[in-house]
Amino acid sequence: MKIAIHYTKERVEDSYAPGWIEYCQKHNINFKIVNCYDNDIVEQLKEFDALLWHWDQLDFKSLLFARGLTYVLDRSDFIIFPDVKTSWHYDDKVGQKYLLESIDAPLVKSYVFYDKSSALNWIDNTQFPKVFKLRSGAGSYNVKLIRTKDEARRYANIAFGKGFFPLSKKSVLDERIWTFKKNRDLKSFLDISKGIYRYFFPNEIYKNLPVEKNYIYAQDFIDGCDHDIRVFVIGDRALTKKRFTRKGDFRASGSGLMTWDEIPKECIVKAFEVVDKLGVQSLAFDFVKDKDGYKIVEISYIASVRGFPDAPGYWSRDLEWIKSPVRAEYFIIEDLINKLKDIH
């Protein structure tokens, strides 16, 4: 058994690769670091039984070909994480809408339009506020609460005109300033300096991202919701946390305000049901509560590696609380190794 792990120095702080490498070293697993951007990567992988590649929605290179490589490699005698079923919808909120609707998952009511006239007709006849989103992008940077029809028409003019860049430099800088106000520490202060620098000199990996245009994607706004529930299912485990909105904002993602307690079990049950129906290796969910109970806002094949650093445990499929150190990277590679053992 030999495992390939994609690892480069780009966005290392957000990568699962260091954890996978650490696990292999601790348990004497035969592995080798590879670069999936190599021209001969398919030939290189012929000597391996599996590939682990945490590809990122903010890396324009992976967006160009990661799905294609995954499709090529995802066959019965080669194990890849993430596989096709797990990752094809990654960073595609529109694709997620259709996917979740196809299995009758409890999705927040969502709308998508691909021409301006249809979008404007919907704007004229729907109720506001609505939450408008870009199809791609990380965190809450591309999420906007539209309160009036006039504001929505202006949004549509941009969407069907010059379009939107998927990473707002101003939003990123504002996020760093808010984090400093909350934490008041040296690290968050230095992060502001980095944010100012990147405002004027964007990272090459970000400025090559494609412009999002010629569609509108929106969801119903659930008023009065002061939190969301993050459930990250990996195999038979569910990692959970409750994230609170910051003052004056409806978004919980990126607030840094959270607790490991008060997790509604209905969210865990619904998450496992969706995972089973889709047959995926892992899936991260964001749930919000409306009058009918908790509903899914969006999904991702993976959660931030920094998302559960202090989690005191996780839930089993039987809703048993397992008090144990949580390492999402370890859970993923353990499942992959167990599958390899079953095959071989």
Radius of gyration: 21 Å
Shape: globular
What's the overall average pLDDT, rounded? 87
What series of H and E elements makes up the topology?
EHEHEHEHHEHEEHHHHEEEEHEEEEH
Commentary on this structure:
This protein has 12 helices and 15 strands. The protein has 344 residues and is of the alpha+beta class. Among the domains are: 3-87, Rossmann fold (3-Layer(aba) Sandwich), CATH 3.40.50; 109-167 and 209-220, ATP-grasp fold, A domain (Dna Ligase, domain 1, 2-Layer Sandwich), CATH 3.30.1490; 169-200.
Map the helices and strands.
Layout: E1 3-6, H1 17-26, E2 31-34, H2 41-44, E3 50-52, H3 60-73, E4 79-81, H4 84-87, H5 93-102, E5 110-113, H6 116-125, E6 130-133, E7 143-146, H7 149-159, H8 169-183, H9 186-200, H10 204-207, E8 216-220, E9 227-234, E10 237-244, E11 258-259, H11 265-278, E12 282-290, E13 293-300, E14 313-316, E15 321-323, H12 328-343
Parallel strand pairs: 1-2, 1-3, 3-4
Antiparallel strand pairs: 5-8, 6-7, 6-8, 9-10, 9-12, 10-11, 10-14, 12-13, 14-15
Helix pairs in contact: 1-12, 6-7, 8-9
Describe the structure in brief.
Among the domains are: 85 residues, Rossmann fold; 71 residues, Dna Ligase, domain 1; 32 residues. It has twelve helices and 15 strands.
Key attributes of the depicted protein:
344 residues, alpha+beta, Rossmann fold, Dna Ligase, domain 1, globular
